[in-house]
Design goal:
CATH superfamily of the largest domain: Probable tRNA modification gtpase trme, domain 1
CATH class of the largest domain: Alpha Beta
Number of domains: 2
Largest sheet: 6 strands, mixed
Distance between the termini: 50 Å
Radius of gyration: 21 Å
Shape: globular
Strand content: 25-35%
Helix content: 10-25%
């Protein structure tokens, strides 16, 4: 009798989306890590991060913005302070080569910079019951790990070093394991996630939930957007303009600029990047990106709209890929109320 192997069922983006919204989903973090050591590492970071490191606490993580020389965004990064080391992890798509070229512009005296340090990696898991998975990696009440805190984590791997950070991308509970045993961490996280009714989550569903949470630039990138156009002015320390890379080209927002705006459209609408958004037949913006169609209730579109059309609640129009005019409406973000807002960490 010949044995047969049954392949695991292929999950759809809609199923993954439901998992992230109702249970917990895990995924590998594939952007390159950067490790910084040396007494001058915070001074080095202050040369290009748009928020000062002066008041960064040990064992914490924060989200920061780095600019290009022309003042446009280069990347959104996570900045970890763990012991005597600083770590950077891009939230937006950046290659190891691009990071090497970017960081190579700055004086690294007294700092050792390692791009993609050998053996290190990260795995993340998010969702309203993610905290119950995180509890398996610490020896204290997981409710004591506050947002943006980092703690040592335990892995069933000899000699492994692991750090658990409470930080996410979806508006649901989120955690990230930074470790020198990434495969062991991945297997442990996946076991914990499936034990809580969750699953490994694909990129489409993750990008959709991120977009609904107001983090659409993670999947869509910046293109040629400026800081204010990308609605990232809140990530700039305006008291430090002139003190970090690219800040000399910044202009404080006035409220009259074009701005990245979320719109919803009927299910099944498909829009190409560059499609005109109209109001009463007049062009007032362009489509930049359509989020994956994982939410069965509506389509979510990101567009660059002229002032004042980026305010919520406006009924606009755009032609989809078939040439048919579709109604689109400006909305606020986050688009979906996260279940984590009503699910307590036990």
């Amino acid at each position: 009798m010949t044995a047969t192997t049954i392949a695991p069922a292929v999950r759809t983006a809609t199923e993954d989306y439901a998992t992230l919204r109702t249970a917990v989903g895990s995924y590998r973090v594939t952007t390159p890590l950067v490790r910084l050591t040396g007494d001058e590492r915070l001074t080095f970071l202050d040369g290009f991060l748009a928020k000062s490191a002066d008041y960064v606490e040990p064992d914490t993580v924060r989200e920061v913005l780095a600019l290009n020389e022309d003042g446009r965004p280069f990347a959104i990064l996570l900045h970890f302070e763990i012991g005597e080391e600083s770590w950077l992890l891009p939230r937006t798509t950046v290659t190891a080569g691009e990071l090497t070229a970017y960081l190579g512009r700055f004086d690294a005296s007294g700092v050792t910079v390692e791009i993609s340090p050998e053996g290190w990696g990260a795995v993340a898991f998010e969702g309203p019951v993610a905290w119950s998975v995180a509890a398996g990696f610490v020896d204290f009440d997981i409710s004591g790990l506050t947002l943006h805190a980092v703690t040592e984590a335990t892995l069933d791997a000899p000699g492994a070093t692991a750090h658990l950070a409470r930080v996410g991308t979806t508006g649901e509970y989120g955690y990230l394991l930074l470790t020198d045993a990434p495969e062991a961490a991945y297997e442990a996280v996946l076991a914990g996630v499936t034990g809580k009714g969750g699953a490994e989550t694909g990129e489409e569903a993750l990008n959709r939930v991120q977009a609904e949470a107001g983090m659409g630039v993670y999947g869509a990138g910046f293109g040629e957007l400026g800081v204010d156009e990308a609605d990232l002015a809140w990530m700039i320390d305006w008291d430090r303009v002139g003190e970090f890379h690219g800040s000399g080209e910044l202009t404080a927002p006035t409220g009259s600029e074009r701005r990245l705006t979320a719109l919803v459209a009927p299910v099944g609408s498909r829009f190409a990047a560059g499609t005109a958004i109209t109001a009463g037949g007049r062009g007032i913006g362009t489509v930049l990106h359509q989020a994956p169609a994982a939410n069965p209730e509506e389509e979510l579109v990101l567009a660059l709209l002229d002032a004042p059309f980026w305010v919520p609640g406006l009924e606009l129009a755009a032609a989809d890929r078939t040439g048919d005019e579709r109604p689109v409406r400006t909305v606020t973000l986050p688009r979906v109320i996260a279940r984590s807002l009503t699910v307590k960490i036990a």
